[in-house]
């Protein structure tokens, strides 16, 4: 901390403030009055405008100064600053500057030393600095005298204050965590709620109520943003038009408009959905939710979409922003995104997509009317449906794989029970040996620890296998369902839903000068489903008289299993389409999906049977 200096004092000024009474007549004093929270400044305002605590401190300090015959010329009031270091207390810094400029001040009166110093580090340096200025800190509660032993006692007092302050901090953290876990609100309630006191069984209890004036307006802001048609700038203007204003607080003595960054913070705050957050963990709150859970989630989707660096939350928004890239630049070895812009017409504004490199003269792609590109994307989805028979086979194979895995898990569970029983027997024998004293206790403890590690490993392995299988199967099942008729789903979706569908299927679409989609980068599992589908189309249909898939006599594999192998072959659709492509007949970029024979790798004999006998045939 940089402490201020004042001009070199005279011989009289250099004398310590603890000199005889004759010297006291040449010195004056100041008060330093401090409370830790704003709430303390609000108590008993009818008694004193600074609150009862400040008034009490002033009274005690004034009495102490009068008893010493010291005139008080100034006071410094630090209201509501809980900072543990003096660097974070503006009034204390102002006090130090004042002392440097006014050498006639010889005393600083405080209610107690803990009001000035909260830790030993902050006590030592200012005390040494004040001593050099000829200034003494006088506490109304701690009077140790003027001897060397008194300085030692001051150091002990400052150390104890530091310890107590740290203890109080740890105690507050524990209590705050307990309150949050039980749904309580920590600190000041956000906009839309009010901190109130209620009578509960004859006792006054601090709690939180909804603000009947502001809560409906805040819900309206969530509803507007969830449509995807409003930006934060728009919401700030709308909030002001509706009359939604922040409550007075701290240095803000009157209501004020809500800033854009405050609205952004509100939209992502789960408190409005009925939760409290402490140390990064979410708890069910006891307060009433202003925003329903489904509405809150829709708002989070919009926030996540616009958090993409390619999608800036400004007034020009479109659900295709961040997804489209210039195909002309891509083929020229550049990587350039299409940006959305609007032009003023005679009676309306018209939207266009243009290449970002056009601004620098590197690309001459013409402006593409937004309605043209939108329709091209709709047409694309209309061609994305995969063959129904293929999807049915995938669904059946997925179900069979899950059933097989469940049977395997049951076998594993039985084996696990037997191994655990064996470990328990070993543990019992070791305990008996420990009681008999046959083996050294350290050796027994080592073997017991080994048994515990084996038991934990077996339990963890089984739960992890089940979790991985369930997550992969659910992802694949959702992908299969979406591939049945994505065209109808997309055509009927509103703009915000279309943005989410695009995000699920693609990470990029490359657009040419006519608005046509030339290339695409697929997401998983759609890239994998399409790769296997392309191989499936090229394999001869193997059907029984009843129309059900059969095993090929020369391989013992079904058509789907052959397709899985063919897709992974060196010349298969996965390898051929290593660079992502929107081959509308069924291209892809990578093979994520595991083989469906129990979700385990094929045996070596099956791996070596490449799909060399797959004959090209029309799609089934």
TrEMBL record:
Which residue windows does the record flag with biased composition (Basic residues)? 1-17
Start and end of every Recombinase domain? Answer: 190-309
Keyword set, alphabetical order: Coiled coil, DNA integration, DNA recombination, DNA-binding
Does the record's keyword annotation contain DNA-binding?
yes
Pfam families xrefs: Recombinase, Resolvase
Residues annotated as catalytic = 36 (o-(5'-phospho-dna)-serine intermediate)
The yes or no answer to whether the keyword rRNA-binding is present is no
Q: Which residues form a coiled coil?
A: 416-461
SMART domains referenced in this protein's UniProt entry, alphabetically = Resolvase
Note the CDD domains from the entry: Ser_Recombinase (cd00338)
PANTHER family in alphabetical order: DNA RECOMBINASE-RELATED, DNA-INVERTASE FROM LAMBDOID PROPHAGE
UniProt name for this protein: Recombinase family protein
According to its UniProt entry, this protein's organism is Nostocoides vanveenii
């Amino acid at each position: 901390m940089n402490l201020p200096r004042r001009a070199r004092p005279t011989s009289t000024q250099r004398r310590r403030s603890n000199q005889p009474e004759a010297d006291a007549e040449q010195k004056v004093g100041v008060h330093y009055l401090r409370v830790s929270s704003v709430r303390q400044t609000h108590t008993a305002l009818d008694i004193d405008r600074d609150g009862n605590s400040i008034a009490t401190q002033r009274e005690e300090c004034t009495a102490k100064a009068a008893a010493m015959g010291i005139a008080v010329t100034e006071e410094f009031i630090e209201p509501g600053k809980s900072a543990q270091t003096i660097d974070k207390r503006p009034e204390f810094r102002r006090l130090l500057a004042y002392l440097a400029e006014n050498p006639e001040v010889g005393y600083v009166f405080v209610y107690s030393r803990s009001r000035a110093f909260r830790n030993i580090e902050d006590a030592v340096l200012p005390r040494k600095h004040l001593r050099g200025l000829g200034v003494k800190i006088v506490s109304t509660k701690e009077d140790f005298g003027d001897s060397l032993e008194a300085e030692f006692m001051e150091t002990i007092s400052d150390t104890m204050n530091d310890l107590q302050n740290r203890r109080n901090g740890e105690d507050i953290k524990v209590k705050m965590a307990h309150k949050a876990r039980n749904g309580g609100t920590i600190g000041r309630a956000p906009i839309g709620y009010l901190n109130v006191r209620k009578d509960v069984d004859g006792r006054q209890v601090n709690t939180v109520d909804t603000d009947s004036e502001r809560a409906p307006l805040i819900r309206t802001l969530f509803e507007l943003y969830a449509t995807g048609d409003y930006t934060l700038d728009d919401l700030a203007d709308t909030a002001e038009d509706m009359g939604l204003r922040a409550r007075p607080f701290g240095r803000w003595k009157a209501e004020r408009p809500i800033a854009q960054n405050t609205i952004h913070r509100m939209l992502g705050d789960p408190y409005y959905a009925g939760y409290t957050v402490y140390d990064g963990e979410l708890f069910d709150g006891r307060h009433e939710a202003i925003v329903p859970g489904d509405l809150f989630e829709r708002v989070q989707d919009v926030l996540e979409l616009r958090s993409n660096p390619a999608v800036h939350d400004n007034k020009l928004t479109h659900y295709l922003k961040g997804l489209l890239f210039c195909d002309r630049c891509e083929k020229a070895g550049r990587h350039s995104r299409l940006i959305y812009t609007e032009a003023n017409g005679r009676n309306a504004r018209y939207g266009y997509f243009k290449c970002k490199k056009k601004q620098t003269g590197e690309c001459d792609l013409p402006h593409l009317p937004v309605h043209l590109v939108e329709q091209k994307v709709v047409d694309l989805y209309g061609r994305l449906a995969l063959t129904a028979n293929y999807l049915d086979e995938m669904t059946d194979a997925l179900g069979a794989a899950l059933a097989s895995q469940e049977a395997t898990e049951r076998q594993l569970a039985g084996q696990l029970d037997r191994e655990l029983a064996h470990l328990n027997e070993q543990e019992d024998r070791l305990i008996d040996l420990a009681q008999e004293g046959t083996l050294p206790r350290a050796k027994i403890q080592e073997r017991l620890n080994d048994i515990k590690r084996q038991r934990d490993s077996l339990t963890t392995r089984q739960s992890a296998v089940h979790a991985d299988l369930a997550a992969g199967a659910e992802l694949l099942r959702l992908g299969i369902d979406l591939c049945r008729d994505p065209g109808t789903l997309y055509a009927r979706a509103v703009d915000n839903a279309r943005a989410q569908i695009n995000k699920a299927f693609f990470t990029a679409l490359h657009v040419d000068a006519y608005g046509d989609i030339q290339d695409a980068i697929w997401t998983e599992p759609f890239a994998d489903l399409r790769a296997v589908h392309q191989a499936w189309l090229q394999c001869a249909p193997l059907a029984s008289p009843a129309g059900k898939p059969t095993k090929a006599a020369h391989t013992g594999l079904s058509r789907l299993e052959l397709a899985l192998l063919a897709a992974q072959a060196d010349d298969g659709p996965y390898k051929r389409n290593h660079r992502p492509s929107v081959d509308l007949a069924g291209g892809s970029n990578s093979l994520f999906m595991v083989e469906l024979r129990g979700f385990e790798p094929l045996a070596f004999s099956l791996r070596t049977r490449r799909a060399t006998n797959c004959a090209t045939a029309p799609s089934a």
